[in-house]
Specification:
This protein is an alpha/beta fold. It contains 2 helices and 8 strands, in the order βββαβββαββ. It has one domain: D-tyrosyl-tRNA(Tyr) deacylase (D-tyrosyl-trna(Tyr) Deacylase, Chain: A, 3-Layer(bba) Sandwich).
Length: 160
Amino acid sequence: MMALLQRVIQARVVIEGQVVGTIGAGLLVLLCAERGDSEVESDKMLTKIIKLRIFSDDAYKMNRSVQDIDGKGAAGGLLVVSQFTLAADASGGNRPGFSAAAAPDEGRRLYDYFVAQARRRHGDVQTGVFGADMQVHLVNDGPVTIPLRMTPQSTANQSV
């Protein structure tokens, strides 16, 4: 499973002119399930995302997670957007291949699972729509952009 995190001041997803998900300060999570991924990778990814200390404290050091973004225990938002193109392989020419991405049905199942677990474990979770043509608007804070990857082999040794 792959994710690209962007620390944002605000972000929203628009489909056909309608806002379907919006957050203030928090994380935009572009999420891609890969072939062979399971709930194990999804759970590890979610734990890493909500505990990752990439928000500044009062001394401007990255010491806060999205769960304690304001320093007083109030959580920031998560905007979770499916993005199979994170699995792109452009090594063999000018047209990327996406064979590493999970099949659409499996990708949707794992995306839905991730979102359900995120909503269970974190307060403010918004989403895009799986498989839709979306426009993602964001104000990147920092800018801070962090790629994450949990593979079936790495989850056994991954400490979170």
